[in-house]
Amino acid sequence: MGYVVGKKYGFTGHGAVEIAASIEQAIGQGVLAPGTTLPPHRELAADLAVNPNTVAAAYRRLRDRGVIETGGRRGSWVRPRPATTVRDALLPHMPPGVRDVSTGNPDTALLPALGPALASAAALHATQPALYGQAPLNRELEQLARDSFDMDGVPEGPVGLTSGALDAIERALVAHLRPGDTVAVEDPGWASLFDLLPGLGLQPTPVPVDDEGPVPHHVEAALRQGAQALIVTNRGQNPTGAALSTTRADELRAVLSDYPKTLVVEDDHAFGLSELPLHTLGGSTRHWIVVRSTAKAYGPDLRLAALTGDPVTVDRIGGRHRLGPGWISHLLQNTVTHLWRTQSLDTRAVSASYAARRDGLVQMLADRGVLAHGRSGINVWIPVLDETATVTRLLQSGWAVAPGARFRLRCAPGVRVTISPLSLQDLPGLADAITEAVRPQHIVRYG
After folding, report:
1. Which of 23, 419, 381 is nearest to 209 (CA)?
2. How far separated are the first and last CA of the chain, in Å rounded?
3. Could you identify which of 101, 133, 223, 226 might form a hypothetical disulfide with 259, taking C-beta atoms 3.0 to 4.6 angstroms apart as the criterion?
4. Residue 42 has pLDDT above 80, yes or no
């Protein structure tokens, strides 16, 4: 792809801040697509009649904000998923008649009805409306969250609320890290997390995972090389379905005992829909949090997550939250409280439904000689040699899967299948299509 000439795209400005803002605006408006190469410092400097150092400073600002990537002599280019790009603009085209198993959404048929919960929240609001100066947490919700953490062996700690798991992770990282610090992350891992870290000026250090979670000696290597934080998915890992086993959790705690200053962030987004028990790393280091989102169990639009951790970290997260949003809507809190209280007995049926489809697909693929991973959660990860070829063949067969590039840093290629839209009757046909799509390829492992 050729270089972008500044005036052609309307770049303006004489200072680094102005130039960076002009480039960022072009990216946000879609003029500069993801992957577009930016002009060299000297070329853009001549075009704008400024010093090359000014352009270099503008590029640094954009890099630190997660908008562009820089590669020394390879130049600078727009990130594949820049922070200024609307997420919907990055979705692949879906031909008519294709079954979409790429989204990562829960099964809407398994989400609880919101009518009674919303009515309960509205009734409470009619008599006890939330006003300025009141306690930020619903006390019943706080107790429900703390009880659930206790049942799973999570160490004692205060409870906080955020607008989803990623919000909690961001606030925990900002509470302890500075731009330029490195964070050990699962690879393959959560695409949104990979987008977040550059936006905070943080550097991801990939850690391979297997079916039991992050591989201990790779975690130790990342921490030995200076990673200040470790982010782990307890169960239902996206995209591989990995889940920490008792043995793996013990091994990771042993590694972390030699690095007590590491910030440990545990993402339990599969709470309420995983049949596997939680094995926590909480308390292995001085600063840690365990965060539980309600999005998968109760609905993605219920933007709420409960967390616990060491008092310093939870207090910093809450303090920053009070300076911005102030509190999580009490209408939302009361709605989730009602759901948590009344739906707790239904989680076994929900997790069993997901497990039947997930395990069924993995077994059918194994019967056909195709390696697949999906120990827990709603996704199945299939290692492949050529992602583009696999995705294309599956589209031709009427199935849309997620290409693994969205979830990878250094690991081998793969594709992700979300089993939520599937019935048990769908599994043989999909397994046949996947087998046909990967048959010309060698099977490769992701770890």
Report:
1. 381
2. 33
3. 223
4. yes
